[in-house]
Design goal:
The chain is α/β, with parallel strands linked by helices. It has ten helices and nine strands. Helix 5 packs parallel to helix 7.
C-alpha cells in the first residue's frame, strides 16, 4: 500500500497534470452547512453572505477593514516579564507564549493602532482570541493602558474590540490586577471628555466583562456574539435551572438592556464613525436640500376699458 501511495499515485498525478488542492479553499457555514469560497468570505470581512454568520477574524484583518484605506500605525506593546511565576502545567508557560506568537504573529493578545475612520482620527485596540483565548495578562494589560494613554495624549476617542476568555491563569493574581488598572484608564479618558466605544465580539467572557469591556459610553455587539462572565453551562449547573434560548447572546442582551445595539461587521465602521461624531458634536454631512417651491404669485384680473 505504501508503494502505491508513495510512488504510483504521485506518478499518475504528475502525468495527468494534477495539482494538490489546499484544504482551506472552501469553508463550511456553521449555521447552514453551506460551503463558501474562502476568497469570497475574506472580501466580505469573514461574514457569510447567505446566513450573516460572523466568523472569527484576526486582529490585523479587523484593523485593516476598520481603518480608512486599511492604513494604520500600530502601537508598540510595552515590555514586561514573560513568566513572572515560572508557571508550568502540561507545558511551560514560555513555550505556550512562543507557540501563540508563532501562530498569530503578535507579541500578545492585544494589538493597538492609530488611524482614521471616515476622516476622524481615533485609537483602536483589538483583542485577538487566537492568542491564548484573548486572555488578559500583564502584557495585554500594559498594552491596553498604553492605548488609553495614547488616546489621552493625542486627544482622540478610543474604540476597543473585546474578545476574551478572561484572565490568564498562568499569571495568577498579576493577571487579575490588570482589571482595576484598565478601569483607571477608562476613567481618565472619560474625565478628559473623550468618547470610549466598546465592540463586543464572539466570545467576550470572564473578567474583562467585569472591567473595561462593560464601561464604554456605547456598547455595540456583533450578531450572535457570546457575552457574559461565566459560561451558560456553569450557570445552569450552579442554579440548577434551564436557561432561556439564546441566553448570553448579543440579541438576548440587547433585548434586556445590557447592550445598546447589535451591528453587522459590514456596517461597523460607518456606525462607529457616526456615533463618535455625535459624541464629539462634529457636524454630520447634510443631504442636499431640495429647492424650496414657492407658491404661485396671484395675478390681478386684466381690466379693459369699456367701449
Amino acid at each position: 500500500m505504501n508503494w502505491i501511495t508513495n510512488f504510483v499515485r504521485p506518478r499518475i498525478n504528475s502525468m495527468l497534470g494534477r495539482r494538490d488542492i489546499p484544504e482551506n479553499l472552501w469553508i463550511k457555514d456553521p449555521d447552514s452547512g453551506e460551503m463558501v469560497f474562502h476568497k469570497d468570505l475574506e472580501s466580505n470581512q469573514w461574514v457569510i453572505p447567505s446566513s450573516g454568520h460572523h466568523m472569527k477574524i484576526s486582529a490585523k484583518e479587523r484593523l485593516k477593514f476598520f481603518f480608512d484605506n486599511g492604513e494604520y500605525e500600530a502601537l508598540e506593546n510595552p515590555k514586561v516579564v514573560l513568566d513572572p511565576l515560572k508557571f508550568r502545567d502540561e507545558k511551560r508557560y514560555t513555550d505556550r507564549l512562543k507557540e501563540a506568537k508563532a501562530k498569530t504573529q503578535l507579541e500578545d493578545a492585544i494589538l493597538s493602532a492609530t488611524g482614521t475612520i471616515e476622516g476622524l482620527p481615533i485609537v483602536a485596540t483589538v483583542q485577538d482570541f487566537a492568542f491564548m483565548g484573548g486572555s488578559l495578562g500583564m502584557a495585554a494589560g500594559e498594552a491596553i493602558v498604553k492605548a488609553f494613554e495614547t488616546a489621552l495624549a493625542r486627544k482622540r476617542p478610543m474604540v476597543l474590540f473585546a474578545a476574551s476568555g478572561g484572565a490568564r491563569m498562568q499569571e495568577g493574581i498579576l493577571s487579575l490586577m490588570q482589571l482595576p488598572r484598565t478601569t483607571v484608564g477608562v476613567d481618565r479618558l472619560k474625565e478628559a471628555g473623550l468618547p470610549y466605544i466598546v465592540v463586543l465580539t464572539n466570545p467576550t467572557t470572564g473578567g474583562v466583562t467585569a472591567s473595561y469591556a462593560m464601561l464604554g459610553d456605547v456598547h455595540i455587539a456583533e450578531p450572535g456574539a457570546l457575552i457574559g462572565f461565566a459560561g451558560p453551562r456553569v450557570i445552569e449547573q450552579t442554579i440548577r435551572e434551564k436557561l432561556p434560548d439564546g441566553f448570553q447572546r448579543a440579541e438576548y442582551l440587547m433585548e434586556h438592556g445590557m447592550v445598546d445595539m447589535v451591528v453587522s461587521r459590514l456596517e461597523m465602521k460607518s456606525t462607529v464613525a457616526r456615533l463618535l461624531k455625535i459624541l464629539l458634536k462634529t457636524p454630520l454631512p447634510q443631504e442636499a436640500a431640495e429647492p424650496e417651491i414657492l407658491p404661485p404669485v396671484p395675478v390681478a384680473p386684466e381690466t379693459r376699458p369699456h367701449v
